[in-house]
Amino acid sequence: MKRLVWKSLPVQAIAIVLLAVPVAAQSKTTVLVDVDNRKALSLNGDWHYIVDPYDGGLYTFHREIRKDGFFLDGAPETGSDGLIEYDFSKSPTLKVPGDWNTQHDSLFYYEGLLWYQRDFTYQLVAGHKTFLHIGAANYKSIAWVNGQQACSHEGGFTAFDCDISSSIRKGNNFVVIAVDNTRLADGVPTLNTDWWNYGGLTRDVSIVDVPAKYIDDYDLHLNRDRTAIEGSVHVEDAEPGEEVTVSLPELDRSVSARLGADNRAVISLSVAGVALWTPEHPRLYRVHLQAGQDTLDDSMGFRTIAVRGTDILLNGKPVFLRGISIHAEAPIRGGRANNDQDAATLLGWAKELGCNYVRLAHYPHDQRMTREADRLGLMVWSEIPVYWAEHFGDPAVLAKAEQQLREEIRRDRDKASIVLWSIANETPLTPERTAFLKTLAADVHTLDSTRLVTAALLVRSEGHDKYVDDPLGEALDVIGMNEYIGWYEQLPQDADTTVWHVAYQKPLIVSEFGGDAKAGLHGAPTERWTEEYQASIFRHQLPMLAKIPQFRGLSPWILMDFRSPMRQLPGVQDGYNRKGLISNRGEKKEAFFVLQKAYREWSSHSPASGVSAHPVPGTDNRSRSAVPARDKVANPDE
Ligand code: GCU
Predict the structure, then answer these.
(1) Which of 12, 168, 240, 597 is 20 to 30 A distant from 180 in Cα terms?
(2) What residues contact residue 463 under an 8 Å CB cut-off, 6+ apart?
């Protein structure tokens, strides 16, 4: 790759060159849907990197943005003091995708700015647009192509696509991406989390080619009476009146529609007799979309999800969610999960456990996880990292959370497996927080009227009694709650006498319970940190939960041990949260088999099967909500 070689240029020319470096106005950033099915040049592999803890590659000594920053990919002249004190070509490399923490010991705890650089050659297609696709960059990032800034992004777990049509060229190119994983008080998530702050380009990076007019968003879903596929397709840079076609070749069904003034075509395609997507039969269809020169082929399942009273209805029938929580931690090797094998292993273990559902905590996972859940028949709770004590009074934080919610839904709305969008986890009960989250709940219903909104709430204790009466519940379709009887409070056997008071006649999912155990550490069931103690928590928790009338699902914490800076008990935790039913080395603990046995029994006779969808006498019927948000919509599943 020929770079600007400074030696051959007289000083005044260098000044002119630097000032001339076009720092393009922020180009367009979007989220390309179905991007994994588009034509793309993968940039995965070795990238040179430079660690830059003082941001010297971006700022001058007076903290102004440099015009000659590392983004120019300059090379020092040889044999002189040179104007440049870096050289990507002589710098070490990192694998992309991949967090940097687990690739080099010197980066294990690194929090700060790190530069990535690689060269690539490209064959332009005349008249087409070109995007730089970044599956995820944790936490903030700026991308340049051939020295021109393409985009910047905040948020460590959502994909984004930068229009680089004006900066990419035929033949040789170079791309530089600066990633900074410094935790921010006003970030989403905020400063403290019970997971490792893996930094870097943690998911795929590629160059995506699209026609000048391209399909940039679509929402295709089964209508409520399951007789037609409805929704819309948006075509960017098209003209109203142009045609869009959606077809399902396997059903020999096709429909064409014209773009409206907003370049969106409304779709309605009768599909009587379509095989409904269910965990038992996760039928996926090839969906072919055509708009002018652009074509897309997606793989989609079709189903409906709704609530009726205290029931969750999948395709109009009550369903019980036998689940497990999962962090995006790579089995065995550790670090951020980012490949097909990671997804297959994690979700394969969930299936082996007897799950029909998984909670992908606490942030949107790699798209491979939701694609695999579609294929395996696992319903999904997807979540944005509005976690613990966010700065709920700061409008800028709300804007960041809303941005991540939009990006998450935009990328994954075509996944039948996703049935729940979660907007928060264990947030402190304040008026500011409740207002903030009610805004997010309303956003979910606006962005996606076909799925349910939930959140993992904290519970309140009065003596031995537990209360689920967080006011946020009024805005949720499904109530999630985390409780840790037997671990963070009381003893496992105290679950036997705990009385639950759930203030809402809505479906309740117990989104977390559990306890730590070091795999292979054995002792009496009364001995903390042993597998026997963890199993005892499960043996006492499950019958307690089954008695709650609104109990409609659970996702115990957690499938696999995961790294956390909060978990430092030597010889037991050693930097890992040990609540996994499986260790980070893949060893199944006793509690795995306790839960697996319960799920085998509940697969034929779920705890909710004998419970009416209507209030059960003797339960706490103080329902705060007049009509829960979801029920306001006319619903043939009523
Ligand atoms: C909390 C939290 C998790 C955390 C877990 C624990 O409920 O939601 O992120 O890891 O409990 O303390 O292990």
Answers:
(1) 168
(2) none
Distance 361 CA to ligand 1 centre (A): 10
Q: What is the pLDDT of residues 477-532, one digit of tens each?
A: 999 999 999 999 999 999 999 999 999 999 999 999 999 999 999 999 999 999 99
Q: Distance (Å, rounded) from C-alpha 138 to C-alpha 198?
A: 7
354 in Cβ contact with 316 (< 8 Å) = no
d(CA 382, CA 174): 35
The whole-model pTM stands at 0.92
Task: For ligand 1, atom 7, name the residue with the nearest CA.
Answer: 482
pLDDT tens-digit readout, 571-619: 999 999 999 999 999 999 999 999 999 999 999 988 976 443 333 333 3
Ligand 1 mean position, distance from CA 257 (Å):
48
Q: List all residues whose CB is within 6 A of at least one atom of ligand 1.
A: 194, 362, 425-426, 482, 512, 557, 577, 579
Question: What token pair was written down for 26?
Answer: 């922020």
Pairing of strands 311-314, 317-318: antiparallel
Q: Which atom of ligand 1 is least distant from the CA of 514? A: 13
CATH number for the domain whose boundaries are 6-210: 2.60.120.260
Determine the Cα–Cα distance for residues 595 and 349; give it in Å rounded to an integer. Answer: 12
pLDDT in tens, 6-63: 333 443 443 333 333 334 455 788 999 999 999 999 999 999 999 999 999 999 999 9
Superfamily of domain 214-302: Immunoglobulins (2.60.40.10)
Domain boundaries, the chain: 6-210, 214-302, 321-592
Edge-to-edge, what's the strand order for the sheet holding 160-163? Answer: 29-30, 160-163, 129-134, 205-210, 40-42
Q: What is the largest CA-CA distance in the chain?
A: 88
CA of 326 to the centre of ligand 1 (A): 11
Q: Which atom of ligand 1 is nearest to the CA of 577?
A: 13
Report which of 400, 320, 351, 345 is spatially closest to residue 157, judged by C-alpha positions. Answer: 400
- Going by CA atoms, what residue is nearest to atom 10 of ligand 1? 194
**Closest atom of ligand 1 to CA, residue 567:** 13
CA angle centred on 158, ends 42 and 338, rounded to 5°: 50
Provide the CATH number for the domain formed by 321-592 in this structure. 3.20.20.80
Render pLDDT for 50-87 as a digit per residue (tens, 0 to 9): 999 999 999 999 999 998 999 999 987 655 555 789 99
Residue 562 alpha carbon, nearest atom of ligand 1: 10
Measured from the CA of 482, which atom of ligand 1 is nearest? Answer: 7
Contact 32, 210 (CB under 8 A): yes
> Residue 459 gets which letter from DSSP?
-
> Which protein residue has the closest C-alpha to ligand 1 atom 12?
194
Residue nearest atom 4 of ligand 1, based on CA coordinates? 194
